[in-house]
Amino acid sequence: MSRRRTLAAVLAFAAALALGWGPFAAAQQASDALSISGIDTGAYPSVTLEVALPAVFARDDVRFSVSENGAAVKVLSASRQGAERDALRAVLVIDTSGSMAGRALADAKSAARAFVGGMREGDRIALVGFSDEARTVSGFTDDRSALVARIDRLAASGETALYDALGHAARLVRDGEGPAVIVVLSDGGDTVSASSLDAAVRALTAAGAPVYAVALQTREWDPRPLEAVARASGGRLLRVSDSGKLLEAYTGIAEEIANTWSVTFESGSPATKDLDLRVTATAGGRTAVGSAVAPNPLYAGPPPTDPGVRPGRPEPLLLAASVFAVFGSVALAAAALAGLIVPRRARLDRLAFYDQAGEEARRRSAQGSGDFQSKLVDAVGQVAGKRGFTRLFAERLQQAGLAIRPAEFMALHLLSVIVVGAAFALATRSLLLGVALAVVSAFVPLAWLDSRTRKRREAFEEQLPDVLDLIAGSLRAGWGLQQAIGLVVEQSAPPASVEFGRVQAESRLGLPVEQALEKMAERLGSEDFRWTVAAIAVQRDVGGNLAEVLDIVSATMRERAQVRRQVKALTAEGRLSAIVLIALPFVELVALLVISPGYMSLLVTTPAGWVMSALGLALMGIGVVWLNRVMTVEV
């Protein structure tokens, strides 16, 4: 009894499933694919689509609905183009590899001839064959008899270069004008193409032609590449199980191309770079669906204000004049600000400056130098010297160990800022970016000077314990302090030899050794050497064993250096993390500017972008200061 009930339940379930599946299967059969052969955004937000419907939709009561980025939009109008449509270009791409030999290629030729005969008068058709490589069998022509003769001469041999053939067809379409479609037939997967599927998809998308991909089912067939190409281009895929059905497939494609509608809808102006469109056509209980992607005109940049001048491309002379005018104004403003910030020098200092400037002028006059470089350096020296910049840069250049005059360094600095900023502005056609780079380049030489000074000071402090040991050994041998310093000059490497050589020269000119060493400590800015000088001064005043004092100072410095290296090793991971965190936003910014400059242009062209950029820079500055404080450990 239980078995009968179980059997009855199974039969009832099967009947219900059959009754439920029947309408669903019918609905599935009634669903077709349409292709979008053209997208016109010239009157945006009104967008016009050229939609090709299957032949079963050859009626006038077709209803269209459009969704944009998943949201339904209003359809303004829909009309059949019919005989009024523009002349069309069609590219027939036929697989002539060895697997198509025999009946398959013969049926493909018959289908291609039927397609040519089904096209409207005035349409032009090109023929591409591919096996080991893609080749143009016939360019675009409206001579049907010549085209049919070329179709008849196709022969099968070799491998399958499908991706190369798709790229070849895209180039044919792109080199011409007017609407176009591509019909490709293949019975197998790609085997010998030099290009990739992604490259073929990009080429077809750029060409703007829908692809009708006909996949002939064989043991070697792979419909996935053809399906990807059809979906990306707004076309559709047709699976054909037998070559005898190719005639019906190609005839249907010709009828579908003739059944073209013009559909206009009003865009919702979404804030996305691309418009993801989905079109649904309904008629007589049947539904056809198709999709395509179009660039959003809102992200294509502002329209030109003058038909004779391209946007963002001002005249070169006008741009150059504007660039140099802006940088001149910035230089004058910086000079005025420096005059307000830097205090005026005392009268004796100014007299010393004029005396020094007069000596320099007499020296140049004696040399007969009157070129532009000399005049520029003199002018910069005159302006900077009155406000104390010459002394400031002289000290910093001495600390960095650079054998260059302050006026020359400032002149090179000024020229580099102007040249770099102006060159970048002229290259990018953006005055704002040029000024921004000029501001950045103004700080680069100063940062380099500070880095060189710091490295030189660290190198000297690394040498200092050995130098003190050398001086202490000389003192134990009975030498005087000046003789010990002379030995350091002879036996040590720079920067110690250079700095102690200057102390030796100053002491020979009559300056006491203690004062020469104090000037050296002030010039280097080294705390360790200041302690050394203080120890020498105390020993000079109260007496004692200077060699023993220097030994104690040297041992203390070595212990501090060891602790400093240990701290540096322990904080290495944190410092590396700080570098990554600081550099990563700027690396991403450069990458996005290269990949999608229109997307990033909103940061510098809109008030919201300005606020976001300023806020981001402020937060970056706070983060840099905080990370620097966290990673800095005083020893």
Structure explained in plain terms:
The protein has 635 residues and is an alpha/beta fold. It has four domains: 85-271, Rossmann fold (3-Layer(aba) Sandwich); 317-429, no CATH class; 460-564, Up-down Bundle (Receptor-associated Protein), CATH 1.20.81; 572-631, no CATH class. 60% of the residues lie in helices and 16% in strands. It has 22 helices and 14 strands. The chain has helices spanning 2-29, 103-118, 144-152, 162-174, 197-207, 223-233, 246-258, 316-341, 347-367, 372-386, 389-400, 406-428, 431-476, 481-491, 496-508, 513-524, 527-542, 546-570, 572-595, 597-600, 602-605, 607-631, and strands at 31-33, 35-43, 46-52, 63-68, 71-80, 89-95, 124-130, 134-141, 180-186, 211-216, 236-240, 260-266, 274-283, 286-295. The strands form two sheets. An eight-stranded mixed sheet has the order 1-14-13-4-5-12-3-2. The protein has a six-stranded mixed sheet with strand order 8-7-6-9-10-11, sandwiched between helices. Mean pLDDT is 75; it is low at 7-30, 302-315 and 335-370.
